[in-house]
Amino acid sequence: MKYIFEVRIKEGHTAEEYADAWVRASELIQQAPGARGTELHRMIGDPMRLIAIAQWDSKASRDAMEGQPNEEIRAIIHSAAPFVEIRRIGEFEDPEWVVMPDKSKN
Q: Where does the ABM domain start and stop, copy by copy (predicted)?
């Protein structure tokens, strides 16, 4: 499953400030069973808006991680809170199958 949220950087701060905290928290979160990786992207034309995507084996895996609070992760997230607004977009199941073009033909 994918957990997706939007991050808006507040005036006077930079995406790099948030990215530093995000990487530190993600490195810890990704040690949890079922974690499959994270991505952080800037919006084209608006470098103050980001989208973050965390991938998990299942919603249950992600919920289990959140059910065991980690004080270090909480402190990192708290340190970034003053300069961002975070809006949860949602939780999305992985499709039953994925079709992708064959890159070797290009």
A: 4-64
Domains located in the chain, CATH noted: 2-83 (3.30.70.100)
Please enumerate in sequence order all residues whose Cβ is within 8 A of that of 1, keeping only pairs 6 or more positions apart, or say none.
55, 56, 57, 58, 59, 62, 91, 92, 93, 94
* Residue 54 near residue 74 (C-beta atoms within 8 A): no
Question: What's the confidence (pLDDT) of residue 69?
Answer: 85
**Over the chain, what is the mean pLDDT?**
93
Query: What pLDDT was estimated at residue 98?
Result: 75
pTM of the model: 0.83
